[in-house]
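Q: What does the assembled structure look like for these inputs?
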Amino acid sequence: MCGIVGYIGNKDAYPILIKGLHRLEYRGYDSAGIALLDNNAELHVYKTRGKVINLEQFCKDKNINGTIGIAHTRWATHGEPSDINAHPHYSQSENLALIHNGIIENYLALKQMLELKGFKFISQTDTEVLVQFIEYIMNEEQCSLYEAVHQALSQVVGAYAIGVLEKGNPNTLVAARKGSPLIIGVGKDEYFLGSDASPIVEYTKDVIYLNDEEIVEIKRGAKEIVVKNLANIELKPKIQKIQMDLSEIEKGGFPHFMLKEIFEQPKSLIMCMNGRVQTELQDIMLSGIRENIEKFRKARRILITACGTSWHAALIGKYLIEYYCKLPVEVEVASEFRYRNPVIFEDDVMIAISQSGETADTLAAIELAKGKGAFIYGICNVVGSSLARVTHSGTYTHAGPEIGVASTKAFTTQVAVLTMITLLLGKELGTIEISLYKQLVKALFEITNKIEKIILKADEIKNMSKIFTYAHNFMYLGRGYNYPVALEGALKLKEISYIHAEGYPAAEMKHGPIALIDEEMPIVVIAPKFKMYDKIVSNIEELKARKGRIIAIVSEGDTTISNIADYVIEIPNTEECLTPLLTVIPLQLLSYYIATAKGRNVDQPRNLAKSVTVE
Ligand code: M6R
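A:
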């Protein structure tokens, strides 16, 4: 939700900032802009509606000199996507320029106060209010930019990651964060800002993860940077190494990040299970669970909270944990949980799941449960993210950077982590037979080869997908572990192809949605051969009787459904509880190929952004 990048050093800032914006574009692509202090310390702001490529076009004949600058790619919150609402925003005198990711909630009150003092506003954004407010304080207090930012942020309610430049002050870059991510890259005589590590990793692996309510003053050439919190206490920032390779954030020959990420799922699952699924011992090692086993043992129930795709993984977690650990599990959409005054017990364990670790609603749900004494266990992909820092313990998914807006490898690695947690908990709590435990550990280890086999069917799925570009509606059905996969398949199709799709538990069809079925309606039925198989065959018969067009995901060698369904995609055999790791793959591919056949930009679907850092 908006990407911000900054640079101060000896190199030309413009190419670094533009490349950084391209890397952060997955966070928002409504508009893009850049501010540079040129060699005469003059401040220039260039910004335009649309993607970073438009900004580059726009800057072709502009003065892009300077070794200090900030840049922004926007996902609009306050004010429509337009040139004027694009960041950076100038202050009234055009002495300051500011970029912002987040929402200033009390911006209207601040704006009214500033208007009474004669300030004029040209955009509809909360960000312009913040930069004007900083200028107002600088003038009133006759203080430095850093002090003014400090004072302004003490009076601001809301979330922010900001970068600020001042005309005539080419040696200072000021930045701050609360609720939105911000990383500082530490190079040799140079510093970088980034919403994540992707714009930084090419230049340095040394980074400082700024904490909430920290404000930083970066001076050109300085050996150290000054970090203070809102209470004005100076802090010693910790330099950490980023574990990311440049190749991980590049497309590597694939037309889209989404396709690359679908194809790399076997690899990301190997990384996720590395050292954790121990094949020789047929055992699971998860230090976070082992160290906190008493919390789980004493828990009267487990709450799992998440949003979007991570919520679908959470639903699979419920099926897994209740079946194998005999612990009650409640799954909560974070945005609902945080506002409905839920009952939270001190002995609750909350598992919070988020790819980015920056989803505002999930973080708020964590704070709520933590405040009531619950133990919080995180499942997260991004190392050093806010979620990783606010949880008591947790497990990283180690999927590698996920850049496609539609989540794919994040989902399968989250499900793998939930499976590992379940098996280990079941063993420790004594709710799972050791022989079954070993059998499932082995099957989990073998899953990556089976995913490879499904990926080999990509061309077959691509051909099939061309048939369905006509559709305006799709239905996805599954039962048990594969009901959440039906929800996930529908979400994938919706977000990247803009075809309306619904996921349902297959047997619920009869309670209403079957009224929608006619010869136009494609219905994806997830039907691997397990205990509910005969029931789902009956569900398919009911749909066929109403002329629905069935695409069935079936177990290898299935002949019954192959004879009834219009199209069939086979998945290799595995344990029932592991089928989501396989059945979701053809659904991801189907969505991808339908969307590309319709000419959609699957990596940057309309209205979406990768991490939802605002409510
Ligand atoms: O980073 P998170 O896992 O917390 O993100 C949650 C959702 O915003 C995310 O899964 C979203 O639904 C994806 N676009 C789905 O593909």
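The domain at 3-245 is CATH 3.60.20.10 (Glutamine Phosphoribosylpyrophosphate, subunit 1, domain 1).
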